[in-house]
Design brief:
- The protein has four helices and three strands; from the N terminus they run ααβααββ.
- By secondary structure, it is α+β, with helices and mostly antiparallel strands.
- It has a single domain, classed as Orthogonal Bundle (Arc Repressor Mutant, subunit A), CATH 1.10.10.
- It has a three-stranded antiparallel β-sheet.
- The termini are far apart.
């Protein structure tokens, strides 16, 4: 599954939620539940947003908006 098959609307929605809640911190499992995604779709979306440098993954497996990184 690729981000294109999931649709840009989903990616826009997820970006929007992270923008509306700058401190949002989600694990893969939490993201799956929040956006009602199966495991593969969730990995694809989160991976695409990490590669786009919008999100980053912490050592403990949580995803946060990248601009929250300390310099």
């Amino acid at each position: 599954m690729t981000p294109e098959t999931l649709g840009s609307d989903l990616l826009r929605r997820i970006r929007g939620e992270f923008n509306e809640m700058p401190g949002l911190r989600l694990t893969r499992r939490q993201a799956q539940r929040l956006w009602n995604l199966d495991s593969g779709a969730c990995d694809t979306v989160l991976g695409a947003l990490v590669r786009a440098k919008f999100l980053y993954e912490t050592r403990d497996g949580a995803f946060l908006r990248r601009d929250g990184l300390a310099a």
